[in-house]
Amino acid sequence: MATLTRTSTPTPTSTNYQRSAWAFLLPGTAVVVLVLYLPVLYTVYLSLTDYSGLGSPVFTGFNNYVALVRDPVFFTSLANTMIWVVGSLLIPVGFGLLVAYLSFGLKGAAWLRVPFLIPYALSGVAVGIVFSFVLQNGGALSQALDFLHLPGGTTRWLQEAPLNTVVMILAASWQGIGVNALLFTVGLQSIPAEPLEAARVDGASGWRLFRFVVWPLLRPSTTIVVGLSIVNSLKTFDIVQAMTQGGPNRVSETLGVSMYRDTFSNSNYGLGSAVAIFMSVITVAASVLYLRRQLAIGDSSGSTAERAVR
C-alpha cells in the first residue's frame, strides 16, 4: 500500500522579497535617473562652463553666477517673478476659492463652473496670443474703451512696466481660476457634514462658518492648490513669451524667459544653465519651506473648528 508523503512548500526568505522588490524598482529608478537626475547634473556642469552650443564646454567656475548677480536685468526678472507669485496667489487662487465656495451646494453648480474651466483647456501660448490681440495698442480693449468714451483707450497695456506684468497675470488668472475652483470643490466635497451641521446648530453662519469651520477643514486642498500655484508661477514662461517676449527692453522678463533668451537666443548655454539652476533652487526651497510650514500648522490646528463654534 502506497504511503502519501507530505511535501512542504518552501517559504520565501527576506532575501527573495528584497530581490523581487529591487526587480520591480530598478526599471522605474533607471528611467528617473536617466530622464531627471542626469539632465540636472549636466545642467549644473554647463552652468560652470562657457559654452555656445558648438565645440566643447570650457570650464570657467562660478563666472556665470557672478555675471548673473552683476546683471541688473537678472534682478528685474527676479522681481517680476516674485510679482507673478504674489499675483497668482491673490487672483486665481483667491477667486478659485470664491467660485468654489459660492457655487458649492447649488443646483446645477457643475454647469456654473464650466465657463471657468473651458480656458484651462487652452495652452498658455494660445491664451497669450488671444490677450495680445485684446491688449495691443489699438487692440480690442482700446477700441472698446474709445467706443464707450471711457478712459484708458490710449493706455499701452503691454508696453509699460509693471502694468504689462499685471495684465499678463490677469490673463493667466483667466485661465487658472477654473482648475483652482475645481480643486477647491473637491476639497469641499470631502468635508464631513457633521461638523458643518454642528456649527450651524451652535449659531455659526456666513463668514464665521467659513473662517472657523470650513477653512480649517479645507487645509489639505489649500495646501495643494497654493503649492502648485507657487511652483507654476516661479517658472512662468509661455504666456510672457507669447505676449511680450519679456519686452520692451526686457522689463517684463521672468526667470523662465531670461533662461530661454540666454540659452537659445544668445547661445550662451552656460549663463542660461546658471539661471535654470537658480530657478530650481528657489523653487525647491520655496516648496520645502511652504510644505514644512503647512505641516506644522496642520499638526497644531486639529481642534480649531471645535473651539471656534463654542
UniProtKB/TrEMBL annotation:
Any single GO CC term annotated in Swiss-Prot or TrEMBL for this entry: plasma membrane
SUPFAM superfamilies assigned to the protein according to its UniProt record, in alphabetical order: MalF N-terminal region-like, MetI-like
Cited InterPro entries: ABC_transporter_permease, MetI-like, MetI-like_sf
Residues covered by the ABC transmembrane type-1 domain: 78-290
TM regions (residue ranges): 21-45, 82-104, 116-135, 166-188, 209-231, 269-291
Pfam families recorded: BPD_transp_1
Compartmental location: Cell membrane
Protein name: Carbohydrate ABC transporter membrane protein 1, CUT1 family
